[in-house]
TrEMBL record:
<protein>
    <submittedName>
        <fullName>Uncharacterized protein</fullName>
    </submittedName>
</protein>
<feature type="domain" description="HTH myb-type">
    <location>
        <begin position="62"/>
        <end position="116"/>
    </location>
</feature>
<dbReference type="InterPro" id="IPR017930">
    <property type="entry name" value="Myb_dom"/>
</dbReference>
<keyword id="KW-0677">Repeat</keyword>
<feature type="domain" description="HTH myb-type">
    <location>
        <begin position="9"/>
        <end position="61"/>
    </location>
</feature>
<keyword id="KW-0804">Transcription</keyword>
<keyword id="KW-0539">Nucleus</keyword>
<dbReference type="InterPro" id="IPR009057">
    <property type="entry name" value="Homeodomain-like_sf"/>
</dbReference>
<keyword id="KW-0238">DNA-binding</keyword>
<dbReference type="GO" id="GO:0003677">
    <property type="term" value="F:DNA binding"/>
</dbReference>
<keyword id="KW-0805">Transcription regulation</keyword>
<feature type="domain" description="Myb-like">
    <location>
        <begin position="9"/>
        <end position="61"/>
    </location>
</feature>
<dbReference type="Pfam" id="PF00249">
    <property type="entry name" value="Myb_DNA-binding"/>
</dbReference>
<dbReference type="InterPro" id="IPR015495">
    <property type="entry name" value="Myb_TF_plants"/>
</dbReference>
<feature type="domain" description="Myb-like">
    <location>
        <begin position="62"/>
        <end position="112"/>
    </location>
</feature>
<dbReference type="GO" id="GO:0005634">
    <property type="term" value="C:nucleus"/>
</dbReference>
<dbReference type="InterPro" id="IPR001005">
    <property type="entry name" value="SANT/Myb"/>
</dbReference>
Length: 313
DNA sequence: AAGCCATCCAACCGCGTGCAT
DNA sequence: TATGCACGCGGTTGGATGGCT
């Protein structure tokens, strides 16, 4: 695919926009619309590339842009959507009228990400942070189960297991990255997949996997077995106190799990787990017919087709 | 007052994708 | 099918600003 030579052209101004330039751009777009961004600068009498004009307009000059601090509701919405969509800033921005993807991205990077980290959550997975070394005892236990007495062989086996763990994590995380299709954008759609999620958590519930699926499946929060290190993760169910009660957030509103009657905040509700649940993969509706039938083939089966995964079975 | 550092955010850069030819 | 163009997106940069020593 060809690359746009747009900004490679010399002689075009870069850097901060002057009020005069802003006025020219606003005047032109108000009168004619932006049309082709590439030709706009010439027509508007601006010594800028079209890309720069587009960015200036969409991120700053557009009349419907909302300015000022993000509200608690907006913050909550971003957190929820990010747990589902990941760094799909433009997709997130469509749910926040008046906010630009750039603004949301900046807000995330400067505020929300730090906030999650401070709370002990991984900002990418929205789960309590776990690291490789936390799972090391599990790896060693598994290795010993395999009767690996020879230290050198055991080390090799542990390294191999570690690689498998990382491989699995990669699969799971990439799955999360995929889940951006319109059918999966709605948080409410996540509920429909909770059964699959439960199955997954159960099927992947080997001791080894337990170390990496550190958030209990919502339906079994209460009977969650201690994790690999024998410690139960204390999950703050009310990380953010503002309830989601306006129209925009209706589908994220405070809910209860079917069996436990535990109020689930959006952040850690059933819908908060999608990093492990790629519903486009789970449902296969587009490619494989009806979802009910195809849901019978769930993640574990798919994963176990992989030679690496057979070791976990 | 001056220097250093951290934070914020507008703007840039490079890549992927859709579309036309 | 291959190519080029235009656009949108996400990651990153760097200047402005404010707080601290």
């Amino acid at each position: 695919m060809g690359r746009s030579p747009c900004c490679d052209e010399n002689g075009l101004k870069k850097g901060p926009w002057t009020p005069e330039e802003d006025q020219r751009l606003v005047d032109y777009i108000t009168k004619h619309g932006h049309g082709s961004w590439r030709t706009l600068p010439k027509l508007a009498g601006l010594n800028r590339c079209g890309k720069s004009c587009r960015l200036r307009w969409t991120n700053y000059l557009r009349p419907d842009i909302k300015r000022g601090k993000f509200s608690q509701e907006e913050e909550q919405t971003i957190l929820n959507l990010h747990s589902v969509l990941g760094n799909k800033w433009s997709a997130i921005a469509t749910h926040l009228p008046g906010r630009t993807d750039n603004e949301i991205k900046n807000f995330w990077n400067t505020h929300l990400k730090k906030k999650l980290i401070q709370m002990g959550f991984d900002p990418m997975t929205h789960r309590p942070r776990t690291d490789f070394f936390a799972a090391l005892p599990q790896l060693l236990a598994l290795a010993s189960l395999h009767g690996l007495a020879d230290p050198s062989i055991r080390l090799q086996a542990e390294a191999a297991q570690a690689a498998k763990i990382q491989y699995l994590q990669g699969i799971l995380q990439s799955a999360a990255a995929i889940s951006t299709s319109p059918s999966t954008n709605s948080i409410s759609s996540m509920g429909a997949a909770s059964t699959d999620l439960d199955n997954i958590s159960c099927d992947l519930g080997s001791p080894l996997m337990g170390a990496f699926t550190s958030v209990p499946s919502p339906s079994n929060v209460h009977d969650q077995q201690p994790l690999g290190l024998g410690e139960e993760i204390d999950i703050p169910y009310s990380l953010f106190e503002v309830p989601m009660n306006n129209d925009t957030h209706e589908q994220c509103s405070l809910s209860y799990t079917d069996d436990s009657k535990i109020p689930m905040t959006p952040l850690l509700s059933q819908s908060s787990l999608p990093p492990l649940t790629d519903f486009s993969l789970l449902n296969h509706e587009d490619a494989c017919g009806t979802s009910d039938e195809k849901n019978a083939t769930s993640w574990p089966e798919l994963l176990l087709d992989d030679p690496f995964m057979t070791d976990f079975a």
